[in-house]
């Protein structure tokens, strides 16, 4: 088993409330939470509250099943989200993580600070792969917010 940690900071031209809603609303989350081309969501359940659970199951290229199983530990509306989660592909556990998301208001919108601490199992994923996949998700949030504003 290996351990790792990374932080990604992004600034979005949206209020903390709007950015927080992109994480909190199940329909919004479903719109941006696929990190690979060719993936299709086959299940998404979300109980967004401290003690609540979220499950996302995607079918990826080659019919591999990708599963996110998370538990919300702390939520302060428009300010922060803390959750623990595991990531599996088919029947193999890739990682277990603790993630924090902070929403910091600024002149240009909201600075989002995401930190993930991970345990990697059996060498099935690297820190760089996880960081890159997470960065894609955050690009998707920017696209989602832009499209939501344009409607």
Describe this structure in words.
The chain has 151 residues and is of the alpha+beta class. It has one domain (2-34, 76-150): 2-Layer Sandwich (Alpha-D-Glucose-1,6-Bisphosphate, Chain A, domain 4), CATH 3.30.530. Helices cover 26% and strands 49% of the residues. It contains three helices and seven strands. It has helices spanning 16-24, 26-32, 127-150, and strands spanning 2-12, 40-46, 53-59, 65-76, 80-89, 92-106, 109-120. A seven-stranded antiparallel β-sheet has the order 1-7-6-5-4-3-2, covered by helices on one side. β2 and β3 form a beta hairpin. The model has no long low-confidence stretch (mean pLDDT 92). InterPro entries: ASHA1/2-like_C, START-like_dom_sf. Pfam families: AHSA1 (PF08327).
Q: Structural class, judged by helices and strands?
A: alpha+beta
Tell me what the CATH architecture is: 2-Layer Sandwich
Q: In the residues, how many domains can be counted? A: 1
Largest sheet: 7 strands, antiparallel
Distance between the termini: 46 Å
The named CATH superfamily: START domain
Number of helices: 3
Order of helices and strands: EHHEEEEEEH
The coarse overall form would be globular
Give the helix proportion (percent range). Answer: 25-40%
CATH class membership:
Alpha Beta
Rg, please?
A: 15 Å
Outline the low-pLDDT stretches: none
Number of strands: 7
Strand portion: over 45%
Q: Find the CATH topology.
A: Alpha-D-Glucose-1,6-Bisphosphate, Chain A, domain 4
Widest sheet, order of strands: 1-7-6-5-4-3-2
Mean pLDDT: 92
Protein name: Activator of Hsp90 ATPase homologue 1/2-like C-terminal domain-containing protein
Family: Belongs to the AHA1 family.
Organism: Lysobacter enzymogenes
Pfam families: AHSA1
